[in-house]
Amino acid sequence: MEKITPSNSQKIFPYLWFNGNLEEAVRFYTSTFSNSRILSMNIIPENISMATFELEGLQFMALDGGPYYAFSPAVSFYIHCDTQDEIDNFWNAFIDGGGQELQCGWLTDKFGVTWQIIPSILGKLMTDPDTERSNRVVQAMLKMKKIIIADLLQAHEN
Q1: Among 70, 97, 125, where does a domain finish?
Q2: By CB neighbour count within 10 A (0-12 exposed, 13-18 middle, 19+ buried), where does 94 fall?
């Protein structure tokens, strides 16, 4: 693995604090996203470890800092997906091994990080000038955990 420092072109970096599972988390995330890589990882047993990794062109920094802080759904990562297969793949990867399904395409993975797995078409359907159609889409989405594109399209058309 080549040692790469954080990009000078990216001004803001998500910085994630893990509690004893930094290496597992970084390896999981970089195996879940096809366009990803570990840029650096400094694992120091019984001490603070750090990593820099990239998912879909966005660099993250991470720290294994101990039990002092926990993740919260107040901050989440939004993944827009073009197909149901893409939604299903991300959803299943994040739920497997202890993730928790939430409403409206949200979930919390086994590390406590919250994600939104959202179809690209959702914004267009929800902002349709025909408010009856857009309201049906919203009502359908509110009943879902994992979002099903076909059900949104059916709600929009009926």
Answers
A1: 70
A2: buried
